[in-house]
């Protein structure tokens, strides 16, 4: 994963899945995510400073998240029907 892609992934983790709750992020770590919570928060702030960041975020989301549950494709929500 390139640097920008990883930055977008970390920001997405902070903003979307975890609803900014560190406790929820800890559950994602069992799927192999090794980022520190503080790094995800910093990535979120950095991404928001990029020009036309929303277009980058939307393109990343379309490619890397499940359309059914919105979680990363390798870490579907428990109730997601797409993973079954």
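Sequence proposed for the structure above (84 residues):
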């Amino acid at each position: 994963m390139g640097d920008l892609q990883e930055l977008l992934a970390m920001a997405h983790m902070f903003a979307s899945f975890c609803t900014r709750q560190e406790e929820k992020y800890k559950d994602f770590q069992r799927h192999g995510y090794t980022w520190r919570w503080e790094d995800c928060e910093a990535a979120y702030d950095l991404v928001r400073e990029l020009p036309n960041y929303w277009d980058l975020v939307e393109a990343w989301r379309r490619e890397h998240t499940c359309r059914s549950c919105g979680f990363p494709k390798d870490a579907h929500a428990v109730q997601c029907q797409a993973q079954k």
